[in-house]
Amino acid sequence: MDRRHARRALSALALLLPACATDVMVEDGMNPVIVTALDRVYDEAAAETGVPADLLKAIGYVETRWQMVQAEEEHEGAMPNTGLMGLRPAVAARGATLAGVGIDDLAFDHEANIRAAAHLLAEEARVQAVNSDDVVQWAPVVEAWSGIEDPEARAHYVGDDVYRILRDGAEERTEGGELIASLAPNKDLQPSSAAPVEKSADYGPAIWRPSPNNGARPSGTTPSMVIIHTCEGGYAGCWGWLKNPSSGVSAHYVVNESGSEITQLVLESRRAYHIGATYKCSLNNSTQCGKNGQSSNNFTIGIEHGGYGSQASWPNGQIEASAKLVCDITKGHNIPRDRNHIVGHGQLQPYNRTDPGPNWPWAHYIDRIRDHCATANPPPPPPPGQDPPPPPATQIVIDSNSANNNAAVARIELTGSWTSASSTPGYYGTGYWQGATSETSAPATFWFYLSANQTRTVDAWWTTGSNRLTTATFIAYNAAGSEVGRKSVNQQTLGSQWNQLGAWNFTAGWNKVVLSRWAATGKVVIADAVRVR
Fold first, then answer.
1. CATH value at residue 285
2. Is the pTM of this model over 0.85?
3. In which domain, by residue range, is 443 found?
4. Does the pLDDT of residue 164 top 90, yes or no?
């Protein structure tokens, strides 16, 4: 569905959602992307149609991770999917008719979207004479549902995507911990037989699935920029389309939603057809202006990511896998690791693309790329007789979005009422928390885990504004709960960058940095991110 249509329809959102049955999170006028309490909706759709509820949940998780996305066209000829179940344009109207709902409801009413998908699956089951509660018997129905032409990609969607989730189970929660939906593991399901794969020559962890849609780079041209895309759909359908000769489009790599698999389609030395824009350096901070007027494909490497530009957050595993890949690419082609050389598709083609979308965690992503490259290039050994320098401390970033944190070493805890926001640009990750000042103890607490006693330097990141507190106080505590230091900062200045708070002595275990908002009313404090290095 067209983005403009999506925005016009937001005003009708309250009329489309059942009162009290579910909660919807809508932030800063963006599309509704998180719906909670979905288990009941899936159970009711299953009872209505006879499609196993677990199968419906697994398909919804594979398609969108249970989010009401608003997809946009990512590649010419590949029309975007709709809503929580990723309904394809070819079947959306039929699904709406079977469910007795309007076609426009599918993009904004999660119940209508799930019911339409269930009716389509039930209709296909009748065609194929499938009448069983055994999800294994539904594999041919899932295959037809996928709509994927490429046989290899279609088989991957069924066995490695949908039935893997059925076997392993899944659970999704909001940032605040509220359950979106859950799927218990079906332990009796057997793993699909692993088909032999050819590994990439450019990047060892990737699987080589060559696309014919590529060409030679202009003479003397080497890659000097990386472009980040979203598939506007799932992983298997994405690479299946990009290797289809009739599509005419491609990318160098596709990263799956969990980060467990990467497909390479085009050699890095070759030109992939992943962006339909001529280059304008005015869109990229006056970087590489000598390339103005060229096809951006000539000198870029394109990386697709399973998912949608409108989704609320990105799985940590996917971000990590992508960051490792980009580290390898930038090392191999001597590309600077910054936002002028690692850019979003929508940045270079803003007239009809927005991917990877407003919630792509750019600051965290660039940090992870740099961290992986630093790890991959250890310093040379010291001369004989000289002690080696101490190893650098491992950096820990505690983001305001729990989905972006490594839960083993970082988490954020909020006390009292805080508001999620992303209206002020320059935030770290995917947004920030805003808390009104008050003479009460209701802080934001950035927790981090250390395996041993260490002296660490702590930095903080915030966005600026005239309503910010000029004496926002960060207080550091060791794992025993003893204060080890504090720093008051003016959050009306020095925003959108790391600001050093201090170097303090922490102990083994869970330490914390507390952002207080104890002050006279009338201002706000910003809990965005804390870095421990």
1. 3.40.80.10
2. no
3. 396-532
4. yes
